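Continuing from the previous page of notes. For each protein in this section, the sequence appears first, followed by its structure tokens. Read the first protein now.
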Amino acid sequence: MLRLIEILLFLAPFIFFAAWRISATARGPSPRIVAASIVLLGVLLGALLWFQREGALPSGSTYVPATLHGGRVIQGHGAPP
């Protein structure tokens, strides 16, 4: 999901430029397109920040990789130092 957001953030300027070129008249882009692009970029940035914080380990913890114990996979996790 994070990769999708990164790709959308990368493509956003190109998409907005194309939308502007298609819909622009001599007076420039419509206020709707400007407002929609600002809202969309804000939503994408908010989602990117939320996903970054959601997957982060607590401060000072060390990552313990996934292990196999008795035929069961123990998920990777953060452990105190």
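Done with the first. The second protein uses the same format. Note its length before scrolling.
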Amino acid sequence: MSVTIGHSLSSETPFALDFDKSRRVLICGKTGSGKSYTLGVLVEELANEENATLLVVDPQGVFWTMAQPNYNQEAELARWDTLPRGLSVNLLVPGDPTERWNAEIVEKTRETGVNIQSLRLNPSDITEEMWCDLFDMDINELQGITLFKAVRQARHKLQREFFISDIVEEVTRSNALDTTKEAVIRRLEMASDWDLFETTRYREFWEILAPKGVNVLDLSVLDQGRYGLRTLVVAVLARFIFRQRVISRRAEALNLAAGLPKVWMAIDEAHNFCPAGRSSLSKAIIIQWAKEGRQPGLSLVVASQQPGSIDSEVLSQCDLRIIHKITSREDLRAINNLSEDYMDREIQTYVRELKHVGEALLVDDRREKAETVRIRPRCSKHGGDGA
């Protein structure tokens, strides 16, 4: 698959990228430099991939607008021999969309062509350690031990068909002190009130994951810092996809029907999900995608206005970097550390020469080439402009 996201500034010719195999992509730049716009351009190109499913992790709630054509840049698109067009958008909303927004917003959003689906997590897809981390419980202390054992016991008895009520029941049956039980149960009851978990049956994620078009996971409906719910959702879905793709890859090698096609996961504001210098519920699985995802056909795009705040284990795996204007010393230092021997100058030298919004340095390890490009206009509507 050849992808063209812009023109070379030196030759004014389209700059094509090879996406035939799994890739790790970094898109970065300071606020207003065009980072989110470029992510949208790349998503448009990836949406044309016939043999891959596309998932966009959207913390700001802006990528649903890709269902609408970009008539604002119709003239610019004509110069690229293309037309405004919307994409097929499958919007995944944690919890009940009507409760998260209201009935009028849901209806109006659907009128724009967006398919809206409710997403709830299966409690059994969350490991014992993750349950404890969610509530900041130490597994070596009384509350953490009690919760860990309750989840493990529920899993042993019910396999994957257990829910928060089953965990509560196991806590109640435990030999822990009454005060410990009460503290753990209060946390679990609070989790039930989040409207984030399945309560009646185990549901496979691919039941709501569209194989074609763009799946947008709208995390803007969840508080950014509260109990790490955004990172929990990403962790659970990424672990599920990774596990299923490993199985599907084995089936493909045996000429059997695969359950899940290759997957591209694009994460906007990635520094919140795989942060440098601290932990998060989603950090370990994102690092695993970056390091081990190639063989099972998992590709990763991380986009951030703070590349220096992304864990170095993820940054170092990115074989394609699309870098817009950066002025922060910390971020420049982090990006400059990714300079390669085949480049005639350091990355920071190229970046300082970028003059306009939409210009970017593109460093492609696969082709061993660095090129300054102008990103093409979006075909679909960009929802990232400020109010």
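What the second structure shows: Residues 205 and 237 are 7 Å apart (CA to CA). DSSP finds 13 helices and twelve strands in the chain. We return to this in next week's lecture.
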